[in-house]
Amino acid sequence: MPVQAGQNADKGTVQDVFLFSPPARFPSTVESPGKIQAPQRRTGFRAARFLQNCFSRRDWGGLAMVAAVAMIAAWLVCLPFSTAVQQTTINRFHLATRSFAAWAVQQPIPPMYNLENRYWLAHQRLTPDQLVVPPAVGIKTGMVNHFPTRLATFADSRARMMQNPLETWLYVRSRYQSQQRTTEWRLRPDDGGGWVLTGGPLE
Amino acid sequence: MTPGSSTAAVMNLPADCDVGEIRRDGLLVLRTVLFAMLVSLLWKVIFFVAAFRIYQACPLEDPFFPAPLRSVWLSGGCYAGSVVAVFLALFAGSRRVLIALTGVATACLAVLCLHQQSYNDVTFLTCCWTGVWCLWMASRIDAADSDLLSDGAWLAQLILSVIFLGGAVGKMTPGYASGEVLFEIYFSGRDYWLFNILRNQFDQAALREIAGWFAWLVTGTELLCAFLWLMPQRLASWIAIAVLLNIALMSNTWLFSVLTCLMGLALVGLHTPRRNTGMPGQQLPVGQPIRLFRQDPTRL
Question: What is the enclosing helix (H) or strand (E) of A176?
Fold first, then answer.
């Protein structure tokens, strides 16, 4: 019996209709011989479909990616509510995590324009009071979008250090809601033409 | 008939698209993302070359990073390695080669995310996430996978969602809510067309107020985009592309190094074949697989 293709056109989202021997994934595509039944429109969350496909294809890589993203999202959702997560994130930005491995584990977490990061850069050591009311001259201050330690480690900062090879003090205060940390770094030129960075918390 | 082609016939795939081969439409999508990734990596190539020279001339001893992750040659090698691997992957036609090249690129980018000289540059983070997606796509790009494109689009939008979530949540602090942070970073002195116009038109008090509204707009938009994974596929793609383009054009064109690879991921959702429309009135025989697409989407 001829069948009008257009009759079924609005029912399908996949590219083919199977009359015989449909793949196991679409057991409902055939109800009875001689009658065309387009594959039922796959409704529901795309997430559920993705996970179903991963399990049926043993796509462990796909599942691992979803698991990693879910863990990162859970961590991020906790950030506004948990002081422990806030302090860990601030320590990450200050390269002050207890171990490098613990810091490295956090690197896949997107940090763009996170926290309120203020810096002070001077060729003299500053007291905490001077950070509140900075001296009128000889100090540069401003905001950094993320990873404020780049003021010591990144290329543009190092170019400035090369032009003016004087001992430099860098202070960074990062805040997130009630949590904050101020770190003091000392940048001093060494004998071999390089620089040495040492630092620790100011408060 | 080979076992592979028999399976392909059962699954109603094109005759020349044997199981175990790669899907041409999947390959096109993967190449699009790889190209976007290459653009991201090369957007600041002049800066990276200059930075490499500076790092050579001015090494920094920092006890936090292990010695290998302070090496100039490691960062330079990983950058070059990722660029070369992505470039070669654009021309690869074999699944194994694609897996190897995207794996190498992702590994190089992961090292750059941990390296003293590049950990703060989010270009490498977004490219690394994109590389992980490309690696997954390469691993599933065989011809028998009819859900490849829709699954790929959802996974790409999941990655975009978590990146936007990171941006939104990190700004939920008084410094951003008041506009102070964005005022100091952009409005007070950034030499860019939008902020130059605003500085010419408004005084400092008005600029601070605009910065406050701008911060709320940015955070709200990022929060909306954190739910791309729950949205209809094409809508999510269009929203992501519009927002990513807007971020770069409105604030800083250097940001294309961070955002172009993400735009590539956003494009994945647009490549999926549209819903079948069929041809009303067409007489179809019974007893044979019937294609409702006038044009086979796997033959590009």
Answer: strand A168-176
